[in-house]
Amino acid sequence: MKKSDKALVVSSVLLALMGATVYYYWDKVDENTDGGNNVPQVAVVNNFDECLSAGYTTEESYPRQCRTPDGRTFVEDIGNELEKTDLVRIATPRPNDTIQSPVKITGEARGLWFNEASFPIRVYDAAGKELGTAIAEAKSDWMTEEFVPFEATLNFEAPTTAKGTLVLQKDNPSGLPENDDELIVPVAFGEAKQTQQVSLYYYNESKDKDATGNIKCSKDGLTEVKRIIAKNDFVVEDTIKLLIGGKLTAEEKNSGISTEYPLEGFELEKSALDANGVLTLTFKDPQNKTSGGSCRVGIMRSQIESTAKQFAEVKSVKILPEEILQP
Q1: Quick check: pTM over 0.85?
Q2: What's the start-to-end Cα distance of the chain, in Å?
Q3: Neighbouring residues of 154: CB distance < 8 A, sequence distance ≥ 6
Q4: Which CATH number fits domain 84-189: 1.10.10.10, 3.40.50.2000, 2.40.10.220, 2.60.40.10?
Q5: DSSP state of 307
Q6: Domain spans of the chain, in order of start
Q7: Which phi and psi angles does 318 have, rounded to 5°?
Q8: Between 43 and 276, residue with greater pLDDT
């Protein structure tokens, strides 16, 4: 091959390489520009969380606001806290906090938010499925128009969504929609402890009448309500404690369910299950609150026995001391 031919080949190869290099870098520049004006492309952002994750400017207001380079502004969802602040206030958890079961809920609400010193709290997943409920209890006199501190512990089943909602409901014994009110608190779900659903047996007088309308004072009046509790080695004992805590929601009360519990000073001290399935429950009743007529005492005893026997390992129930829950 002549020198001139070799030079021509080398020149052609060099030109091809230069062209490929120019094309590569031009293509990269084009990917990061808009209309040749060298404006960086904006990340895909459709809500506050995506804006925050993209690292865009966030104003530390309440609620927080995040602004994208193209001028859009997204506001953090804090539920309806600002609208309800003169009626009910939540201290823990705060909006968008991460919670796991069981979660302790504290705050304060005006006395009119309570009924008989309590109101219900529910937790839902992002799909609207109810995961659990609890009864918030007033920690001081609730017969006032002023703010009253409250506290609740809510156990809930494992969620299938990353986020959900706490709903603090005004207790509404009337059942009238115009008297309903609620505080909505968005939350995120963390790793939850194992939970399980249990049954508590309370009493509905309307289901315990004979053909002539007389109350029979029988187990026919026992009515099941569901609760979520933590799964552990003391689930039977914890369930009985929950039963004698006597916490009913407004809906349950409105349906006719009632309970003699809680009774002042009446507590479960210990429980023991033997190899034959006999569950011994030892209570203390220093003020003799479990005495009374045979109808009242029989129903209270039946509530305890039926609640305990939902567990397959419990075959029979023995209540101590023997004088407790006697007519």
Answers
A1: no
A2: 122
A3: 101, 102, 103, 105, 121, 123, 132, 133, 134, 166
A4: 2.60.40.10
A5: H
A6: 1-29, 84-189, 195-320
A7: -115, 125
A8: 276
